[in-house]
Design brief:
single chain; HSP20-like_chaperone; alpha+beta; Immunoglobulin-like; 11 strands; 273 residues; binds zinc ion; 3-stranded antiparallel beta sheet; 5-stranded antiparallel beta sheet; 2 domains
């Protein structure tokens, strides 16, 4: 069974799984390029962490039109003499310059036309435990201002995230009690608030009552009072049902938005070509 977090940590955990799944390459798109991070097979058949940087090129682009200068700190890439990328990497410690290379690939776009694309495979150094999931280049930090730089995404922080995960208590039925729970300590005097009470059914009583030890107040004891763990379980079930509904709503809204967008997308493609 997969690890399951407590309800309150669920969103954070899902985001973590999404981010740390190497099979899901999350694309980050910018004006001149897009990039993704994940595992890829290198020329020797080894799977390695790498960034794939993609830059769209004109149809008549040949390798000789591509000019590249790569160092661990900086990339300058120009096509047909136009500089498309001239930027510092946001982190200069991870890139294995000697292993990285680019290739020119021909693809067919949605409209069925053949387009060219530069695929730059930027491999991580073998001794690097970092994951490139936030920004690739320095200027991206300005475009994505709400990123927090402070905690680097490294193997260490990921292991800590998993190690600190608290699993929820097992589900329990209403008539099952856990020994460490204080199921019955919740009664208090409704008159003075004192927790020093006795719950009992005296000879003249028709039901159980709460007798206060500090004042003369007596009230009917609610024998069906929920145990704290049962209450929490019920509240989480309700919150989960609400969240599920909201998610479904959001999905539907996104679906409708995509349907609306189709003509716009095609218009954009035609303009580019
Ligand atoms: Zn009292």
């Amino acid at each position: 069974m997969a690890i399951q977090p407590e309800f309150e940590q669920e969103d954070e955990w899902e985001a973590f799984l999404e981010k740390s799944d190497p099979r899901k390459r999350v694309q980050k798109k910018f004006q001149n390029y897009s990039w993704s991070f994940g595992i890829d097979e290198d020329d020797d058949g080894f799977t390695r962490d790498c960034v794939i940087l993609e830059v769209a090129a004109q149809r008549d682009t040949e390798p000789r039109h591509v000019q590249v200068k790569l160092s661990s700190k900086h990339l300058r890439l120009s096509l047909h003499g136009d500089v498309l990328i001239d930027d510092d990497f946001s982190d200069e410690r991870w890139l294995s310059v000697e292993d990285s290379y680019w290739e020119l690939e021909t693809k067919t776009n949605k409209a069925g036309e053949r387009i060219k694309n530069i695929r730059y495979l930027l491999y991580l150094r073998a001794d690097c435990t970092k994951y490139i999931t936030k920004t690739l280049f320095e200027t991206e930090k300005k475009e994505l201002p709400d990123q927090d730089d402070s905690d680097d995404d490294t193997a260490d922080t990921r292991i800590k995230m998993i190690a600190n995960l608290k699993e929820p208590e097992p589900r329990r039925e209403a008539d099952v009690y856990f020994s460490e729970e204080e199921e019955f300590s919740e009664y208090e005097c409704e008159g003075c608030g004192s927790k020093s009470v006795s719950v009992m059914k005296k000879a003249e009583d028709r039901c159980f009552k709460v007798y206060c030890n500090d004042c003369p107040y007596v009230s009917v004891a609610d024998m069906n009072k929920e145990a704290p763990s049962i209450r929490r379980q019920r509240e989480i079930d309700e919150a989960r049902a609400r969240k599920k509904k909201e998610k479904e709503k959001k999905k539907l809204a996104e679906k409708l938005a995509i349907e609306d967008q189709v003509p716009v997308d095609l218009a954009e493609l035609e303009e580019v070509d």
